[in-house]
Request: fold
Amino acid sequence: GLCTENNALLCDSIEAALADIRICMRPLWYDSVLGRHPVTGDPTVLLTEDQKTQIQILLNNEILPARFSKLEHALSQSGGPYFCGSSISICDLSWYNMCIGILEGFYCGPRLKPTVLQGNPRLLKLAALVHNHPRIHLWNQQHNYSTPPELLRALNST
Reply:
């Protein structure tokens, strides 16, 4: 399976770190403090233009690079190419999804810069490894997912 008894705690900790990162991105996604209202779907507590700018600068220059650096460290301590060692797990797939979203620009659009991933070669190498995994490759083909050239360059330059 994608998460075994031996790596469940480590996998859960990586998933929690990725969830925290997604929460940090919420203001950029919705231009509001709390995201969308659970009933109406309307953005809640809208941000001013100045607040949006401040959040974008902090996320791009400080918060996300620091969070990705911690994930890079966790990956370096894993003993393998994957977060949980030598076998792919669900947290590797979650990371791949996030990395692709950042590199392609569909995580928060153009306000979130791919440069937040700079200085984390193991994370990019992991995304490339997952991307090139035979079952992921097959799924991408079956779902007509065409990897943009920019993404391939970013993933294969590590």
In short: The helical segments are 8-30, 49-76, 90-104, 121-131, 134-142, 149-156. The CA atoms of residues 81 and 99 lie 16 Å apart.
